[in-house]
């Protein structure tokens, strides 16, 4: 339980979108990054499930970079 709590605190500290650090009047980049993270995890798991581990190692970075480029401007 301590490890899980430590990981959650670390993510909240080092990833500002999880800490809701963006103030009022901000952009949609914070919530967009959360949505794209979930979508990316689902896409990468789908590649792993359909094509195997080697294809996942190739497609994973491509998916992550593509989703990052699709984020709204901040």
Architecture overview:
The protein is mainly α and 74 residues long. It has three helices and no strands. It is flat and about 35 Å long. The model has no long low-confidence stretch (mean pLDDT 81).
What is the compact description of this entry?
With 74 residues, the chain is mainly alpha-helical. It has helices at 2-14, 29-51, 53-69.
The SS-based structural class is: mainly alpha
**Bulk shape:** flat
Mean pLDDT across every amino acid position: 81
Taking pLDDT < 50 over at least 5 consecutive residues as the criterion, the unreliable ranges are: none
Number of helices: 3
Report the portion of residues in β strands: under 5%
Largest sheet: none
Number of strands: 0
Question: Keywords, please?
Answer:
mainly alpha, flat, single chain, about 70% helix, about 70 residues
Topology (elements, then pairings):
Layout: H1 2-14, H2 29-51, H3 53-69
Helix pairs in contact: 2-3
């Amino acid at each position: 339980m301590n490890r899980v709590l430590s990981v959650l605190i670390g993510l909240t500290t080092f990833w500002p979108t999880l800490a809701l650090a963006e103030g009022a009047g901000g952009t949609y980049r914070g919530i967009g990054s959360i949505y794209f993270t979930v979508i990316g995890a689902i896409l990468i798991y789908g590649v792993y499930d359909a094509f195997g581990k080697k294809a996942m190692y190739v497609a994973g970075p491509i998916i992550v970079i593509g989703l990052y480029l699709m984020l709204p401007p901040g």
